[in-house]
Each structure stands twice: as C-alpha cells, then as structure tokens.
Amino acid sequence: MTRVACVVVLVLLGPALTGGATVAAQDSQFGIRGLGTPGRWESVRSRSTGGAFAPFDPLSTLTEAPLADVPQLTANAMESASYRDADVLGTTSALRATRFPLLNVAGRVNRRLVVGAGFTTYLDRTWDVTLRDSTLLRGALERYTDEVTSDGSIADLRLAAAGRLSRRIALGAGLHLLAGSTRETAERRFDDTTFHTVQQLAEVRYSGVGVSGSLLLGVAPGLSVIGWARADNRLRATVADTTSAETDLPRMAGGGMLFSPGPSVRFGGSVAWRGWARAGAGAFDTWSWSAGAEIGSGRMPFRFGARGGQLPFGPGPTAPTEFAVAAGSGRAFAQGRALLDVGVERLERRGGGLTERVWTALVGLTVRP
What we know:
This protein has 369 residues and is mainly beta. The chain has one helix and 19 strands. It has one helix at 44-47, and strands at residues 22-26, 37-38, 74-88, 91-108, 113-124, 127-137, 140-164, 169-190, 198-220, 223-232, 234-239, 242-248, 251-262, 265-274, 286-295, 302-310, 321-333, 338-351, 354-367. Strand 18 and strand 19 form a beta hairpin. The protein starts with 21 loop residues before the first strand and ends with a strand.
C-alpha cells in the first residue's frame, strides 16, 4: 500500500448551560451539560449488531488488532440520519440530524503489517437552547428571550497499525489526534422592541492526543476474545490563540467475545468502561454492554443486537442511562469488491427528568479495489 487517505470532519463544542432551558434544536439533550455527547466508533455492520461486533471489526475504529486480517486495500464510510423526540420538563420537541460520522481506510504494507487511518466523531456539541426570563430595567419588569447555540463537534483522527504474531495472536496500536472547533452564539432579545438585541459570538478550537492498544486471541476454533485499552490526555480549548480551558479526558478499557459455530452464524458480546469522571464536576464514569448476532450468507446476512449502559453527562445526580436495539443487513456487489450495509436503531435515553427517543437510519459503503 502506497497511500492511506484520511478525511477530517472539524466541528464545534460549547459551554455547559444552567437549568430551566427548553430545547429548540439539538443532536442530544444529554450533551448540553458537560463536554458533549460521545460518538460511537462503529461501522454500520457493527452498529446493526448493537455494537457487539465492533471490537472485532477492522472497519470500526474501536480497536486496532483486527486490522491484521485485512487482506487488501479497503475503504469504508457511513452516513446516519437521526429522528428524535426530546421530552424536556414536559415539553416535547421533534429534532432531526444528519451526520457523516466515520471514514476508515486500511491496507497491507507487507505480509505481517497492516496500517489504517481514518476519523470518527469523538464528541458532538450541536444544539440550540432558548430561555424565557425577565429583569428590572428603569423601574419596569422587562421580559426577554435568551438563545444560546453551539454548532460543531470534535473529530478523532486515528493512525493505526496491526500485525499477527502467530495464527492465534494479533496485536495492534493506534495514535489519536483530537481536533475540532465550535461556533458559539448567545443572543438576548427583549419583548419590548425599543431595547436593542444583544449578541455575542465566539469560536473555540480544540486539540488533544491519545494512544490505544488491543490484543486479539483465537482461543479455540470459531471462538475469539479481545481486550483493548485507551488513554487520552487533556482536551485543550483555545479562543483567539489563548488557552481558555484544559479538561482531563477519560481512560478506557473493554473486551469482547466472538463465537462462530458455522460459516453463516456469528454471535458476539462486549463490555466497556470509560472513566469520564476525570472531566470534572457533573461527569460520571460509565459502563456499557452489547450483544448481537449475524446470521446468513456473506452476500446478504441478517444482523441484530441490543446495547445498554450509561452516559457521562446529565442534569441529575446520577449518570443517565440508555438502551437501544438495532437490526440491519448488507449486500455484496462487483464480485465482493463493493459492500452496501444498511441498518436501523431505536434508542431511548433517560435521566434527570429528561427523556429522549431516537430512530436512526444507517448506510455504509465498503470498497475493495
């Protein structure tokens, strides 16, 4: 392989908000307080199994060791469209978002070494919140509307390498660069139009680095296990070339098991821990789990799964929870050189009196030239 392409999505992040606000538009209400909503580092195939296959999927960016089994230059990209109902303090808003959350390219350098590069969403912070209140001006009570918006996210750019130490053992490692920016707007509009509208704008840039590693073991015919760990340093926020904040990012670890009793049947499961409490007050360490299966031929299999766990940021004293079920399929074209994967996910999140229900449609394309 002479070149590995990597496309970067740079987007934005904003400050935590106080309570009493109603959501006008956003990706997730649980990402407003804190650093944002963590992304899912999974291809469409893996996400259609509830994330159960992600630790073993070379085209997901969760682990590196599975890259060792990539036979040739392979590129994968996905798009998602989410339709959510956010219930905040009894007020329900219908929200929609379209994302391009993952691109991954991998290829073999020699018989023992495979390298890969790509990006995925690390944190998302896109929302629009309005707040109604009043203040005393010149002896009269004046009503006003505050609107605070944040548009953007932080991308995780990964450069990874993996190789097989033996037929049963594969080892991988990765370097992660975190990059992004956010455009933040705060505007106050008075009901009395004789008062001027006040608006503030700011652009914040973010940077950070991390390292990760994983070990894949074939413990028996048709049975594989994997373990992985990752450590990110601090997320640095910069405004006009001046550092405005530095936030500790989590340590992470997880594992998974994949069982294939036959060539057309695969079952998987995984667990993960993420130490988000390092990010400061209001952040929680999280556990997550997933279980799923893929049944059918390689040309058009059926996939399904479920996942659950916790979210790192929320309005209450405990971590919000989430549960999702997913299903999908795929189809091979051009003698297996092109793969089209589709999936659908139903997600529910709860915490602090807030509820979010989301339908997400997923489309992924894999090309092996």
